[in-house]
Amino acid sequence: MENGKPIKNTNLVEKFQKDGFLVLENALTDSQLLALNSDLSMWVEESRGNEKSYGKIMDGRPRFDLQLDTHSFDNPALRRITSPAEISKACLDVVKDNKALDLVSEIFGPNIKHWTNKINLKLPGSGTEVKFHQDFPYEPHSNEDIMTVLYFLDDVTLENGPLEVIAGSHNGPLYSLWHDGVFTGAVSAEIEAECKTKAISCVGKAGSACLMHSKLMHGSKSNKTQSARSLFIVSYTAEDAVNLAENPLPSELDGMIVRGKKTGIVRSTSYSVELPEYPQEVSFFDQQSKMKDI
Ligand SMILES: O=C(O)CCC(=O)C(=O)O
Which of 59, 85, 236, 280 has the fewest beta carbons closer than 10 A? Predict the structure, then answer.
């Protein structure tokens, strides 16, 4: 907002509609970034003393998820914090207001609600990577106006495991995340190989945000550096998009209106997708590791 009036970003909206993603600088204020990183440092310190994933989200699964094969006191491998906005004022403040959200409401608005929030970390030496996938088959809704916003908590560089995206893929087909009857949460090895030849890396300074359409194909490699790469990731939906599968990261904030108002209207578009499997483990890293077993 500027002087109480929304800033019009026609060029950005058109760019987003064409590419399915964009990186917005200074999406967070300095004080928002500082507050998020202060909570995050505390959580990383706390993770050192834990030998398995810990804490609890609404459905009883752990809130703090460790990459157990590499985690140790000296080299913590905390890789996911689920729904941190339930326990952190800094996270909740960002969920409710930031410059990227202004843009989401110009793209899908005016009425926008919160769907999920999480922090993905790639701490040095953790080896954490994300296989190529689209988010939409994890979160099918009555229409496709679903946005994943990834706020950079660190500078994101070509070397520290940036998000990699396939421009324009949000206008293409939905690819199966089921293989041999297993919901792996990743596309097949053939599709993945093709994606790797076309991927664009999303880099930028801490405080930037990448807005990504839920149907955009994306993944990310491991962090090869000695500094962390952390993202606060919030998914927003148009208020008239109704979920067709259970929220895989249920929280008390599911459905909270963050822009505009509740209308009670359902808007539907026509498409087909296989329903996802409700994840037993809290993070998709475990889901995606099933790919090795196939
Ligand atoms: O943490 C990352 O690099 C990727 C995040 C991602 O793929 C997602 O949130 O769907």
Answer: 280
